[in-house]
């Protein structure tokens, strides 16, 4: 059985070689792109005391043993975000990283428990500037047009930019922001039944998943921008409309590729958001308990105005190769 399993693994790797060679060239191209724009490549720890503050992500847990016999809990990070922002605060430099990240319990055609995240942070950049840069990156890595599944994607045209308010008006037929916090009203206007225990945020994500995401980014990549402030996470609120956060996600050919913020640098507001997220996380997965990242909060006042983005590199390779499943562009899975 062991010999047969080894032969199967060898055959799978050989079958993947064209995809894997393309992946390797894309890694080289990413580094050339950012180095040509004055970015510094960094490496941050993977096993950390605080893996992130996302409510719905599950983390891998381990224990760090010290030579004196003491030990500390560590987690494999879900993103290098906190560490990279501390480096931006310390250096003021534009930074990028191709990082391995871990999210427990995730496995599907487009999800794996371990994968590669491309993150970069540019001081002085507004969200619109970061969208411009992201467009340039994708055009440097992908052909002007490509067929992925049934989608004929045109990257030669400017990427679509659509606010969340516009998307819900177009695809759901509702005034999203005016219903904020009122789940019953949003359900009524959307023509759906409110499920038991479903609050406004739950319904927002259900409608986004079922009625918006399937239709955007099909002919050309789409930036979905200006998310409701309830989903601000680590993003600033828009000074022109505090109902929304300066955040975008990027979609292409049915794949969610990236999530970006114009970064919040107010430590008091960020602490309040962390504490609110912690309450919700403990209700869902009480075993996922860790302290607030004080080092990150202490660094925030020194961080210049910055925009940052996390892009799923493996999904970008899927687009480039046409691979239908993420595991097909991984060396081992």
UniProtKB/TrEMBL annotation:
Highest taxon in the source lineage: Bacteria
Gene3D superfamilies documented for this protein: Bira Bifunctional Protein, Domain 2 (3.30.930.10)
Keyword Oxidoreductase: no
InterPro entries (alphabetical): Aa-tRNA-synt_II, aa-tRNA-synth_II, aa-tRNA-synth_II/BPL/LPL, EpmA, Lys-tRNA-synth_II_C
Signal peptide: none
Location of the Aminoacyl-transfer RNA synthetases class-II family profile domain: 23-333
The entry's keywords: ATP-binding, Ligase, Nucleotide-binding
Protein name, per record: EF-P lysine aminoacylase GenX
Species per Swiss-Prot/TrEMBL record: Bombella favorum
Organism lineage string: Bacteria, Pseudomonadati, Pseudomonadota, Alphaproteobacteria, Acetobacterales
């Amino acid at each position: 059985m062991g010999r047969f399993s080894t032969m199967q693994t060898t055959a799978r790797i050989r079958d993947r070689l064209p995809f894997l060679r393309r992946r390797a060239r894309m890694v080289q191209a990413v580094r050339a792109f950012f180095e040509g724009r004055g970015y510094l490549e960094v490496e941050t720890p993977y096993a950390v005391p605080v893996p992130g503050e996302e409510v719905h992500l599950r983390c891998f847990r381990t224990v760090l043993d010290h030579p004196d016999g003491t030990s500390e809990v560590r987690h494999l990070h879900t993103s290098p975000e906190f560490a990279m922002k501390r480096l931006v605060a310390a250096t003021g430099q534009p930074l990028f990283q191709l990082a391995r990240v871990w999210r427990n319990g995730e496995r599907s055609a487009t999800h794996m428990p371990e994968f590669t995240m491309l993150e970069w942070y540019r001081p002085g950049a507004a969200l619109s500037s970061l969208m411009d840069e992201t467009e340039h990156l994708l055009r440097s890595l992908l052909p002007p047009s490509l067929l992925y599944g049934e989608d004929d994607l045109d990257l030669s045209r400017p990427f679509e930019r659509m606010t969340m308010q516009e998307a819900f008006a177009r695809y759901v037929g509702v005034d999203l922001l005016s219903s904020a916090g009122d789940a019953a009203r949003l359900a009524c206007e959307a023509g759906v039944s409110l499920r038991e225990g479903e609050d406004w945020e739950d319904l927002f994500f259900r409608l986004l998943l079922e009625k918006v995401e399937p239709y955007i980014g099909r002919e050309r990549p789409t930036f979905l921008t200006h998310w409701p402030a309830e989903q601000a996470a680590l993003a600033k609120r828009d000074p022109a409309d505090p109902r929304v956060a300066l955040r975008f996600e990027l979609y292409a050919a049915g794949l969610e590729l990236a999530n970006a913020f114009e970064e919040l640098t107010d430590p008091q507001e960020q602490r309040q958001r962390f504490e609110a997220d912690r309450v919700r996380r403990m209700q869902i997965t009480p075993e996922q308990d860790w302290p607030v990242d004080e080092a990150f909060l202490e660094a925030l006042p020194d961080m210049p105005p910055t925009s940052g983005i996390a892009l799923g590199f493996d999904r970008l390779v899927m687009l480039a190769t046409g691979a239908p499943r993420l595991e097909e562009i991984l060396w081992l899975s």
